[in-house]
From TrEMBL:
Protein name stated in the entry: NADP-dependent oxidoreductase domain-containing protein
Family: Belongs to the aldo/keto reductase family.
Listed Pfam families: Aldo_ket_red
Domain NADP-dependent oxidoreductase: 17-191
Amino acid sequence: MPWDIIKFNDGNQIPGLGFGTWKIPVDDTTVDQVDQAISVGFSHIDTAQSYRNEAEAGKAIHESGLSRDDIFITTKYSGLDGLDIETSIRNSLKNLGVKYVDLYLIHHPRLAVPDIPTAWAQMEGLKNAGLVKSIGISNFEIKDVEILLASAKIPPAVNQIILHPYVYKKQAPLLEYSAKKGIVIEAYSPLIPVTQRPGGPVDVPVKAAAKRLGATEDQILLAWIKAKGAVALTTSSKKSRLEGYIKAGDLELSEVEIKAIDVAGAAGAQTFTAQTFVRRAAFVLFAGAVGLSVCSHFGINVL
């Protein structure tokens, strides 16, 4: 298998590449796209309460014919409809048609109500009850993780964050901190430099690496994510692209290429910062949570 299997701090493990279901239309399109991803080799499906497509993702998983042990399922507590954490996971399990999920995340620190320690204790209860195998967080900054760890009995297995070259400089301290604490980083929106910011500084080193390796630019960005030790989450409706994403696990960037991408990302980061995404995130997430709109993975246009 080209993509690494990454071990969690609780002894469980996760495939290094995952198929994200954010922004897939909530109908048979979700079923078809998840089915297609599984058919080309994805064994890691990522969804969330607020995507409102858990049932469709679950249908595709069941129709794949894979045994439950052969598929890794992530979903997230998004505070949808004001429901509490335990009610939310039970609803998610029903929607997905499974008895447990492999990974359950708090979608954003502001959703940890009434506070992070209380919410995390509830997450620990879900793990102890066998409803989830591993628990984690999403969009938590260092200060949020420190609050969590101060009272946690079970540390988070994962922190799922936005990660691509244009936000790497800002996120690097969090990656370093997480590595020290044994928390796996999952990277969402890794392809933004080619899907949303073509023509930026990152294009030059990415294209050079793609030429050397006979690869596509999106494959190079996924290889860069892998080089940072993170799990890559991505999506596409095109089978050929998904097949390319699977093959990207075989690519190995040189240290010079990785550094060149880092430097180019920092050069383009001034007008494209992680803080911008967080501001958009908070607005769309909470709008979705109170029923004003569907949270589309924090309002970030990805693919």
